[in-house]
Amino acid sequence: MKSFITYDSQSDFSIHNIPFGVAILQDDSVVCVTRVGDTVIDLAYLYEKGYFDQFELEENLFEAFGLNEFISLGKEITVPFREYLQQLFLEDSELSKDEETQTEAFHFIDTVFMQLPVHIPNYTDFYSSIEHATNVGKMFRDPENALLPNWRHIPVGYHGRASSIVVSGTPIHRPSGQSKPKDSDVPVFGPSQRLDFELEVAFITNAYTELGETISTADAEDNIFGLVLFNDWSARDIQQWEYVPLGPFLAKNFGSSISPWIVTLEALAPFRTAGPKQEPEVFPYLQFEGNKNIDLKLQTTLKPESGVENVICNSNFKYMYWNMSQQLAHHTINGCNIEVGDMYASGTISGHTEDSFGSMLELTWGGTKPLTLSDGTERKFINDNDTVIMRGWCENGEIRVGFGEVEGKILPAKA
Amino acid sequence: MKSFITYDSQSDFSIHNIPFGVAILQDDSVVCVTRVGDTVIDLAYLYEKGYFDQFELEENLFEAFGLNEFISLGKEITVPFREYLQQLFLEDSELSKDEETQTEAFHFIDTVFMQLPVHIPNYTDFYSSIEHATNVGKMFRDPENALLPNWRHIPVGYHGRASSIVVSGTPIHRPSGQSKPKDSDVPVFGPSQRLDFELEVAFITNAYTELGETISTADAEDNIFGLVLFNDWSARDIQQWEYVPLGPFLAKNFGSSISPWIVTLEALAPFRTAGPKQEPEVFPYLQFEGNKNIDLKLQTTLKPESGVENVICNSNFKYMYWNMSQQLAHHTINGCNIEVGDMYASGTISGHTEDSFGSMLELTWGGTKPLTLSDGTERKFINDNDTVIMRGWCENGEIRVGFGEVEGKILPAKA
């Protein structure tokens, strides 16, 4: 497949990708867009020019602050729609000869502001990397019995705060809160001293279900539109003091950052792979067939204010013990209903090796082994004015499909 | 104050109340409403007839599926608006003489279907009754050290699932899920055997804040529009197996039920009272002035399918250790943003005496002391086809302001 839109061979946004996002254009209009290379394509404009007439959409769903209406059409529409877009961007297509439309609908990426791609009604965070759960268990509980008894039976998850999910590039203030230092009998109050990132991937659902309805592992992926990169910022000291017995709360809900482009499951299909073997056997409602993991390379870098990016982690989404179909089947087995635009994050994705750990907590082993950056400074956790950048891409020697990045800078605590 | 709309002296919806809700009328229109006695008043119709012209609203906000737009106007508008409504319903008012409008705008309560009063973007559940937290700690942890170390320092809370909050009258299917019986080495799967209610009260916010912004205890109530009764259905066996380390998840998100009428903070003002003394002293951001608790009587009844209501609990919202202002100040101290329509529930409200405990878990002490109902049957937890009804009202010898009820029937597990 060769597109008439030129791009670098290392671009995440090859003709094989065709992701979806929402952008503010230079004329301040907010529209749904796709992207090839560094070219952002205004879908609302293409709609107006009649390029989508064959889909008989009732209105211009792309003149919207979120992709929710579009993705709610379901895969019956959105899969052929994406394939049609792909054809439209090939050499010798109708669009390739329509210079007037190209002039109006095509925008260089640096001239637009990417927004949250969907309105997010509900957000759940899982805890599905066995390496991450084991590392945390070793540090905070029993090194000999690091995994809790339920972990291999349940894709453990908890509800997060949807309101504080922001798009890549949004700075986050260091949270203040209570924590209890080890050498103190009483808690203290102040800016978090152990601010961390968590390298995650999140999926977005495209359907509404009724309360009481379940989704099987076989049907789960029909309800998943696509994925984004997810940085689940975490304040470890606040978390440690607050999380027993009801889970993380203020340690997490001060902000989570996502990448702006939703990469569809269909674009990721060539990169499917088997997940880790699950022992003991899981309950029938969690059993599944086929390759449910994705060979999606993940990287995290840390950039000090006046420095360069330091690669601090190389991980892979394929390490996930529990896959997305199992997560969604578990989430709904009690009849919990899902909504269009819901976000379901994986939990921190760590691998076996020390350089694949997906959080500072693990990389510095609770702050006991600081990282040394290229500028000679050390990090136990994230400093003020540090920027954390996560990238994700799939590559198989023939094609490349990537997510771009999710970037976030930590500003000092407010007062 | 005497209304031209007649009502029983024991009505929760006296002229002193003037609550807000959303109803489907007999012509299938969905409108925002208020209520006096058993008369539901269509605010959208009153708007059309010019009764609200003085407020210079930009459009008919009452033709809506939720009160979100109305409450987002803030107390500067909504407080005088409610007072104006109250005047409108008094004897000799303009409306009292406008029989045509009364005919069109007034509906008998049994002829309308009450809906969720707001769209709920985010839902948080606190754990703010010291009696409840102590009871749970005694049962599941150490009877001598029932309260966890953080409890008197932090209004402990966690995020719940907004999508599965339903209005009173909506039946709920018993959830299925994993649990681990005490005598088993491995978990089992099936319908919950320990289905419970939790008697709670929830407040609803009327504002959007920016990420990074905090709300002080002094300002908190400006951001609280009003309250509803809240039944936080809970599956204790599922909860016990899943909740360590990230908190309750499938044990809660199969459904929560709320009463349809939002009673405003202003209607509850005459019933303010002091809360329990807080020891040790709390951090400055949690300190407050004035009477922040409310003398709101709460009752729970259990009705078997072919039986009568059995009163199983009499509690009071005034028992709360942490008040709403502290909850909201805590929730935002890290910069977490709030949204219009967010729901913040209190956690189970228990008193000191055994008949004031707000859950079956406490009332039957983990199932060890079953309740005997009037039909001679016993209950450790909630059976299929049982209906749980919660009521709440304030009374001071002169006036009565109440919430009506939140009712929910448990249907058998699906398949």
From TrEMBL, chains A, B:
SUPFAM superfamilies attached here?
Answer: FAH, Fumarylacetoacetate hydrolase, FAH, N-terminal domain
In which pathway does this enzyme or protein participate? Answer: Amino-acid degradation; L-phenylalanine degradation; acetoacetate and fumarate from L-phenylalanine: step 6/6
Residue ranges of domain Fumarylacetoacetase N-terminal in the record: 16-117
Q: Which Pfam families match?
A: FAA_hydrolase, FAA_hydrolase_N
Ranges in coiled-coil conformation? none
Keyword Magnesium assigned to the entry: answer is: yes
Q: What's its EC?
A: 3.7.1.2
Task: Please list the residues that bind Ca(2+).
Answer: D125, E198, E200, D232
Instruction: State where Mg(2+) binds.
Output: D232, K252, S256
Q: Name one GO molecular function term.
A: metal ion binding
Alphabetic keyword roster: Calcium, Hydrolase, Magnesium, Metal-binding, Phenylalanine catabolism, Tyrosine catabolism
> Fumarylacetoacetase-like C-terminal domain: which residues?
124-391
Keyword set includes rRNA processing? no
Q: Where does substrate bind?
A: Y127, R141, Q239, Y243, T348
Q: Which co-factors does it depend on?
A: Mg(2+); Ca(2+)
GO BP term (any one): L-phenylalanine catabolic process
InterPro entries per the UniProt record, alphabetical: Fumarylacetoacetase, Fumarylacetoacetase-like_C, Fumarylacetoacetase_C_sf, Fumarylacetoacetase_N, Fumarylacetoacetase_N_sf
Domain of life, per UniProt, equals: Bacteria
The text of the family note is: Belongs to the FAH family.
Name of protein: fumarylacetoacetase
- Which organism does this record belong to? Moheibacter sediminis
